[in-house]
Specification:
The structure is a homodimer. By secondary structure, chain A is an alpha/beta fold. Chain A has 3 domains: about 5-45, 434 Repressor (Amino-terminal Domain) (Orthogonal Bundle); about 60-160 and about 300-325, Response regulator (Rossmann fold), CATH 3.40.50.2300; about 165-295, Rossmann fold. Chain A has helices spanning about 5-10, 15-20, 30-40, 50-55, 75-90, 105-115, 135-140, 165-175, 190-205, 225-235, 250-260, 295-315; strands at about 60-65, 95-100, 120-125, 145, 160, 180-185, 215-220, 245, 270-275, 290, 320-325, 330. Chain A binds a DNA duplex (16 and 16 nucleotides) through helix 2 and helix 4.
DNA sequence: TTGAAAGCGTTACCAA
DNA sequence: TTGGTAACGCTTTCAA
């Protein structure tokens, strides 16, 4: 069923039918109802391709995910973020186009998305330090929101978990509990999320006049074996850590395994704080304090980024907007300082 | 830069320029080269919206992911599958539109995708037993490929890991090794992948005239705590299992934890076989046999589904095609029968 | 409150 | 081998 046929059936012009269906005010209520009824009965839906061409809009947002990890193409956090964004777009009549980008293709992908008019804007994932995509997108003039922050850069829109503060507060908590040897199991520090986490960790050390020990800091792709291996090696040091600050739950599972293999007890001999999206995956809350960005925060971030971008598209002259997602400190139970 | 301007610059008609750029044979090579050069110089790219309307194609494939899990919206396997598909579509000039569907919205989403002509076809994820989407999509006439199989249904296109055979072979291996009490930690059995895995497990038992013990079979969302809890309870039985057949690596991490907490050794006291996408996440190969669909298989499945669907769109009258992805049995090291 | 007609930027048919 | 022109199915301007 096309607009033409529908309007002929109704004995109205295409103009009137279109207006009735799109909620224009200058249509009489009785006509509108009649049109709506007929449209529903005839199962009419406007051809999105025609609407796009006629309106000059794409009614689509691109999500460009770079291939950065060895293991995943899309990590679970991104998947949740993107899923939430997708649901949000649907509410606004927008589609989500997903693009996976090899680093060498990334620039041409953005250029093509812009010049072929297939999207109205993009969400940029996995920002890096000095990320070249920022100036690129500005020069292209394609509206964008970054999922993450780029330290040092300004004048762009982003939505981000407060990684730095999260790790600062978590580190501070451990220090206040008496810990002095706190391990940081971080992600790849070329990505700003990891860089910021380390910054928060270092800040808390500085505030408390504690020296950093590089042998307690590692960064890698966030897998279970990484957590196990790193924790195992650190625990074998002559002066081992008494607490672990861990960037993801899978890594924490590895840490837990290393700890338990030594016969140590989490929450008594060793404290673990996890920064991740899914508290429930780690089932010994009540034993160890946990600092976490909950999965719902990730979803909220996706929703926020989506609405921000749509707003930006509708109002291109508004200044860049940014939003820091709150994280929350969840303490399973009281955990005294480590003393083994 | 639009086609009109480009053609004016060149002193050619839009027709000729379009033909030159789209590789039509009736253009002289010299003209084609001249056009291509000018297009590249002027950074011309056809407006995809116009192309779509003119050709009647959408140049887009929809991936509709139902919200089935409590924890993830998109599970990591889907993410990899979808990522691989996305890369494949890009090669063919197609876009991937991602839609997350609440169960109650699913039908209307498919109808809308079809009638608004925003996709040329869809990939259906997470098939269920007697999945209503099959007849729905057939009646709508929207080309589709299912990621997974629907037992009992016929005459549709699918790409699937060979879940049933994988679990049959894995179970058989354990039986041949002397195991008689084999636990199955499965996913939600409303989803066909889990149903098929159980079928394979049961088949191997039947072939060897072993009775099933329902107390050794559980199914749930695939999380670490699920694996831990289920394994812990089973190991406390008066006649505990000597082997575990596990549907995902996170679950296996939980099983391992339960096993190790009892002071048991994997590969000696207890065998574990994992069916999952990422061998490397479980780092004690060499100790326990592992049966696994590797992550590359998942990616291959995504590529396969994408190419099949595009082929189907180009050739709507071809009969349904299906493809069973091979899985491989990876044995870390020789593992004798359990005997504790 | 309604309608006629001109776009939107391509592709594709029919002539030349 | 090239070009004129009519689609494609909407939205939107202008007129009634």
């Amino acid at each position: 069923m096309k607009l033409k046929q529908l309007s002929e059936n109704l004995g109205l012009s295409q103009t009137t039918v279109s207006r009735a269906l799109n909620g224009y005010p200058e249509v009489s209520e009785s006509t509108r109802r009649r049109v709506q009824r007929a449209a529903a009965a005839g199962n009419y839906r406007p051809d999105l391709r025609a609407t796009r061409l006629a309106t000059g809009k794409a009614y689509a947002i691109g999500h460009v995910v770079p291939m950065v990890n060895k293991n995943d193409v899309i990590n679970p956090i991104f998947a949740e973020f993107i899923a939430a964004a997708s649901l949000t777009y649907a509410n606004y009549g927008y589609e989500l186009m997903l693009r996976i980008a090899r680093t060498e293709d990334e620039e041409s992908i953005y250029r093509k998305l812009a010049s072929s008019r297939s999207v109205d804007g993009v969400v940029v994932h996995s920002p890096l330090l000095n990320d070249p995509r920022l100036p690129l997108l500005k020069s292209i003039g394609l509206p964008f929101v970054i999922h993450g922050r780029v330290p040092g850069a300004e004048d762009y829109s982003w939505v981000c978990m407060d990684n730095q503060n999260a790790f600062k507060q978590a580190t501070k908590l451990l220090i206040d509990l008496g810990h002095r040897r706190i391990a940081l199991l971080n992600g790849q520090e070329a990505m700003t999320f990891a860089w910021l986490r380390r910054a928060g960790y270092e800040e808390a050390h500085g505030d408390n006049r504690l020296d950093l020990d590089e042998s307690l800091i590692t960064s890698d792709d966030l897998t279970e074996p990484y957590g196990y291996q790193a924790a195992k090696e650190m625990l074998a040091l002559s002066d081992p850590p008494t607490a672990f600050l861990v960037s993801s739950y899978v890594v924490a599972l590895g840490v837990r395994r290393a700890v338990e293999r030594l016969g140590l007890t989490i929450g008594k001999d060793v404290s673990i704080i996890i920064h991740d999206d899914e508290l429930s995956y780690f089932d010994n809350s009540g034993v160890t304090p946990q600092f976490t960005a909950t999965r719902s925060s990730v979803r909220n971030a996706g929703v926020k980024a989506a609405t921000m971008l749509i707003e930006k598209i509708r109002n291109p002259d508004n200044p860049p907007e940014s939003h820091m997602m709150e994280t929350q400190l969840v303490i399973g139970s009281s955990t005294g300082p480590c003393c083994r």
